[in-house]
Amino acid sequence: xxxxxxxxxxxxxxxxxxxxxxxxxxxxxxxxxxxxxxxxxxxxxxxxxxxxxxxxxxxxxxxxxxxxxxxxxxxxxxxxxxxxxxxxxxxxxxxxxxxxxxxxxxxxxxxxxxxxxxxxxxxxxxxxxxxxxxxxxxxxxxxxxxxxxxxxxxxxxxxxxxxxxxxxxxxxxxxxxxxxxxxxxxxxxxxxxxxxxxxxxxxxxxxxxxxxxxxxxxxxxxxxxxxxxxxxxxxxxxxxxxxxxxxxxxxxxxxxxxxxxxxxxxxxxxx
Amino acid sequence: xxxxxxxxxxxxxxxxxxxxxxxxxxxxxxxxxxxxxxxxxxxxxxxxxxxxxxxxxxxxxxxxxxxxxxxxxxxxxxxxxxxxxxxxxxxxxxxxxxxxxxxxxxxxxxxxxxxxxxxxxxxxxxxxxxxxxxxxxxxxxxxxxxxxxxxxxxxxxxxxxxxxxxxxxxxxxxxxxxxxxxxxxxxxxxxxxxxxxxxxxxxxxxxxxxxxxxxxxxxxxxxxxxxxxxxxxxxxxxxxxxxxxxxxxxxxxxxxxxxxxxxxxxxxxxxxxxxxxxxxxxxxxxxxxxxxxxxxxxxxxxxxxxxxxxxxxxxxxxxxxxxxxxxxxxxxxxxxxxxxxxxxxxxxxxxxxxxxxxxxxx
Lengths: 271, 362
Description:
The complex is a heterodimer of chains A (about 270) and B (about 350).
Chain A: E1 2-12, E2 15-26, E3 30-34, H1 41-49, E4 56-61, E5 64-65, H2 71-77, E6 78-81, H3 93-99, H4 112-124, H5 140-153, E7 158-162, H6 170-185, E8 189-193, H7 197-203, E9 206-211, E10 214-219, H8 221-224, H9 227-234, E11 237-242, E12 249-254, H10 264-268
Parallel strand pairs in A: 3-8, 3-9, 6-7, 7-8
Antiparallel strand pairs in A: 1-2, 1-4, 4-5, 9-10, 11-12
Helix pairs in contact in A: 3-4, 3-5, 4-5
Chain B: H1 12-21, H2 23-43, H3 51-61, H4 72-107, H5 119-132, H6 143-163, E1 164-165, E2 168-169, H7 171-194, H8 198-209, H9 217-236, H10 238-244, H11 248-253, H12 258-280, H13 286-298, H14 302-326, H15 335-358
Antiparallel strand pairs in B: 1-2
């Protein structure tokens, strides 16, 4: 499996969002897409998902143009996890997960196999405890885990995850990305938009840095997540060390202490 | 609805199977209720007809004589008035409630209703235009149904397009656009009404208040293919409508052709509502409250919700019609008045409930 964006550009009205971005995601790897707010990460993900079409350039899945796939054929090949999914009607977590089987369903409806796949996916996303609870009453983090389960139930070899760790507590952030790693080990191609550089450093095979609609760099975490580049992209300084157990970059952001503090608070509380 | 937060995961699959079948007793109860209210509806009225006599009359008609006496007047009233009225009520109730349930799914909003999204006022304008402009001869008994259907489809699509931006349907915009469009359509209807002659006026007032009083076997013949096919075709959309509940882009990611599904649904809802309005006038709130109640009783899965709504809508309409023609006997209250008397307070309750649950619409 290989999903690639070839020299894609996209504008929203007159505003350029993406400018000549080329990116490849191969089966067997987790690619983390990092960048500040408004860099164009979600737009790139939506282009790769086939939601929108690029103004220039093209997207290919296994060498075939993305828009040559029937919707269902595409859904069998790639799953998308949105930042958040809002439901109006109180479907249970299990029902929502089972919807992930939609592209696989036989004309007669879901079989025991689909129900089994949904159950397994719920367990893998650690959402099985509330399988029978209406999605609408779950917390944001619980909802996100149900959506992860739904994406897993879709059983697609390409996964596009838009901030899969949003709303999750630290343990579940790591568990979701651990599942992404396992899927990559099984041969899936996984793209994850992330904000946490340490999660990217820990779980991604490759990291792509996006800023102002341009792809600045891509490569292994050690190649890309350097203090200089991160400072350029995020406008924030980072201290880098080697993780004592994992050997991946360990990144601590900081803002340098300013010498002269001259606001009113400083007067009110003299040192 | 089973809510087992701490339930063991291993039980998830069998438990779902148990919950799934919980919808069936609900449907059976609704069918029994419809049977009871239908029997009552055939019996009560200016001329009383006992259920046994009803059976005797119907069986005599197909050549089976029972040893139960009935008068010729009873036979005439049952066969020419009450039976077509009952059948039309069942069809219209089922059609309106199915249309409401499907529109709520498409708009992902439990407050969507054929009236709110302009289908009813568009259909009324179509029907009024057909009456006033004297188009009745164009397609015989089908003319009004077709004109109402066209008006309903046009109005709902116009509102729908207006409320969509960047692939999303904005609910508040939708409701506001529906309000404005309803007012505009009512004004256009008003313009036509001013040009109407007295007999035309009487027909128009009939449309606006809603009534099954005009039911004949001809109207049943017109209604059956249109309403039954709309309701049945909507049932076939149940599974895709479930997936659409996730949101449009999510549904598209799952391989659903969302634009086509939405168009199909709106067109079928307009067909059902347009036909209903053409034959019985504006009967409000059935499409709003029945799906909502069905969802509370049988869950949100449209494979259960749509049949339950159809039967529930038929039940409510037959009951409302029974009330409309018996409460102030021998006079008759308009059907639309009865459903609005029930529906409007329930609508207020829905608003209050939503406000408490989600903090309103901002």
